[in-house]
Amino acid sequence: MTNAHMPLTSEEVAGRPSSPSDVTAGLMRGTELAAEVVAKAADRAQAFQQRTGVQPCLATVLVGDDPASATYVKMKQNRSKKAGIGSVSVVLPAETTTDELVAQLEKLSDDPAVHGILLQHPVPGHIDERAAFEAIDPGKDVDGVTMHAFAAMAFDEPGFRSCTPGGIIRLLEAYDVPLAGAHAVVIGRSPILGKPVGMLLLASNATVTYTHSKTRDLADIVRTADIVVAAVGRANFVKGSWLKPGAVVIDAGYNEGNVGDVDFEEARQVASLITPVPGGVGPMTIALLLEQTVDAAERQNETVQQAEADLT
Ligand code: NAP
């Protein structure tokens, strides 16, 4: 959804104000951009299946009976199906050990019919989550959770991106937000969201400041940001008074009751562009997952073909 595909509404144009006090921020519509990304992934999935006779396939692994996690997995399976991507569902009991989960993930990694693997996060507390993530073959890590994926993002090398950070960058690009030289403040440093989004912003030549629960004077630091990424997990945490007028605000948070990490009503009076919750970052996460599953299928097929060609 570059502007050529989808012109900014007059409200969104007005959301880049010379005088920010008299207008509200434009919305960065993740739902619409995600629909475009998924439509392209679906076309590629269909072409792949016609070419190879094989349907791209995402394996989802759910451990335990957390209702929110079960809902997320179901949603990802439904969206996969709609996009012509097959899915394999593995549901393990809450008392699954790290070794058992690792063995399951290794089995899926070795299965040629599975192209992408998603381990729903978080896993029950007794499991070594890092060990489980690292059991996923990096070539099938379509959710971008392995150290390999993190290193690829950090070194700006090809590889799968963590889906939410990758989706955030795509949103910023689609809305022509200048990244080079911009000061981006990331609030949160989790391995799947805060840290990788900072790495991707850095790779786009932003000047990145990471903040977290031990950061002093957080509001003052946020006030210096051209771009704010809120990835905290606390409802309405970022206040409008923390924002520089005209800042671009990405609210990655998703808290109970469809509430983001940014006080939307306050922030909208100050920011130039802002992602709504819901309908901002969330849909982009699933869109990237599906896109990367098709990428994985294509890459694995190329590898097999190359190996066959090498034998002849
Ligand atoms: P997380 O692992 O709990 O990390 C939260 C981060 O926020 C930590 O780095 C923590 O700092 C920091 N933090 C906590 N309190 C803070 C404070 N008072 N001041 C500054 N920083 C503070 O959470 P996550 O997995 O990154 O998720 C963050 C949010 O994004 C949640 O709302 C989650 O639901 C949402 N999310 C959305 C999507 C999506 O698809 N839209 C995907 C993933 C996550 P420390 O490191 O110092 O503890």
From TrEMBL:
Q: One of this protein's Pfam families, by short name? A: THF_DHG_CYH_C
Highest taxon of the lineage: Bacteria
Please report the stretch or stretches of sequence annotated as the Tetrahydrofolate dehydrogenase/cyclohydrolase NAD(P)-binding domain: 162-300
According to UniProt, the reaction catalysed is: (6R)-5,10-methenyltetrahydrofolate + H2O = (6R)-10-formyltetrahydrofolate + H(+); (6R)-5,10-methylene-5,6,7,8-tetrahydrofolate + NADP(+) = (6R)-5,10-methenyltetrahydrofolate + NADPH
Q: Where are the stretches annotated Disordered?
A: 1-24
Identify the pathway: One-carbon metabolism; tetrahydrofolate interconversion
Q: In what residue span(s) does the Tetrahydrofolate dehydrogenase/cyclohydrolase catalytic domain sit?
A: 28-143
Keywords from the named record: Amino-acid biosynthesis, Histidine biosynthesis, Hydrolase, Methionine biosynthesis, Multifunctional enzyme, NADP, One-carbon metabolism, Oxidoreductase, Purine biosynthesis
Keyword NADP assigned to the entry: answer is: yes
Which positions are annotated as binding NADP(+)?
G188, R189, S190
The text of the family note is: Belongs to the tetrahydrofolate dehydrogenase/cyclohydrolase family.
Cited PANTHER family? C-1-TETRAHYDROFOLATE SYNTHASE, CYTOPLASMIC, C-1-TETRAHYDROFOLATE SYNTHASE, CYTOPLASMIC-RELATED
Query: Subunit details for this protein?
Result: Homodimer.
Tell me, what does this protein do in biology? Catalyzes the oxidation of 5,10-methylenetetrahydrofolate to 5,10-methenyltetrahydrofolate and then the hydrolysis of 5,10-methenyltetrahydrofolate to 10-formyltetrahydrofolate.
> What protein is this chain from?
Bifunctional protein FolD
Q: Which organism is it from?
A: Kribbella alba
